[in-house]
Predict the structure.
Amino acid sequence: MPTITEIEDLKRIYKRRVPKMFYDYCESGSWTEQTFRDNVSDFNELRLRQRVAVDMTGRKTATQMIGQDVSMPVALAPVGLTGMQHADGEIHAARAAGKFGVPYCLSTMSICSIEDVAENTDAPFWLQVYTLKDDDFMQRLFDRAKAAKCSAAVITVDLQLLGQRHKDIKNGLSAPPKLTPKSVANMMTKVPWGLEMLQTKRRFFGNIVGHAKGVDDPSSLSTWTAESFDQALDWDRIRQFRKMWDGPLIIKGIMDPRDALEACNVGADAIVVSNHGGRQLDGALSSIRALAPIMDAVGDRIEVHLDSGVRSGQDVLKAVAMGAKGCWIGRAYIYGLGAMGETGVSEALRVIHKELDTSMALCGRTDIETVDRDILMIPKGFS
Ligand code: FNR
């Protein structure tokens, strides 16, 4: 196994192994990609305050997210088409998360279904649902999540309309990939990917195909997607979803304090401050800049998580110091998954944990639950 010391190592291997179409799908943001870039670079604006001669023995990164024990305040974010980055990718990621003691969140738009993941993993996982018009389909998704013993539902509220990613259009992204001379040539150069994909037994888009009205095979999926996302979504509709699911509920995709307060009012257990990894509103603030005003608005009314741009344990530490109860990572674990399946996801988690544990200690803290804004130097006008 190559020596992995940072997330960038996994990204380099990932890029070599996965067809360009799927690498680009992950490694891009909407339109000019300004927000996609800011998500990462704005973390560098925050500096950590070093302390010395503090007893650093007996460190603890374990805490809770939505009342569930986690070995560190990190969850794996829902990522569509994960099973195209590696065969059975959702199962590999869920297994790695379970073994590390952090939550895995399955996307509605996954390749492996809720049932595939439940049958092939031990730890409970979370299910992300998009806000769709079809009530029966929504109720069935929640019922399937209940039957699979999912320990939380996550409603993503920032995708009523799809932000445009130029590369996906130019690459003619589709799953399964369209077989053109160019795409075949690209896949042939990615031998490990091709061999793995031949071995997969899963049905494409297992949460949808065979479950949504009129979607009996993947070819009808793009029409379904275009017609099913609910552009008329409002907070009353989100209240209806709250009634369909009686377990812990997380609302993902909040960037404004007013929306955070609305989420408190619908009875969510947590929100995720997220701009979808820079894939939706290009020009939006980075999520780390959006965090503090949201924390100040909601106070103790709701648990706040953050994602978008987290690439290291230092980033997790900074977000926790700003007040987040935990971070979700997307691309950071997808790089590992595409590079080497479950082992790569475990490596991503190991790297982030080590960075978090060491940096926390060098800031003079030994328990993640005692980390606060005092360890940060925040530039004027940051938020
Ligand atoms: C996503 N994200 C996402 N979110 C969601 O709620 N449902 C989904 O199906 C997807 N799909 C998806 C695909 C890909 C390729 C990416 C990169 C992201 C957003 C994801 O959950 C998370 O918000 C971001 O990935 C966080 O940003 P970073 O950590 O990737 O920078």
User: Anything to note?
Assistant: The CA atoms of residues 13 and 171 lie 21 Å apart. The mean pLDDT is 96. The pocket of FNR is lined by residues 25-26, 39, 77-80, 107, 109, 128, 156, 252, 274, 276-277, 279, 307-310, 329-332 (CB under 6 Å).
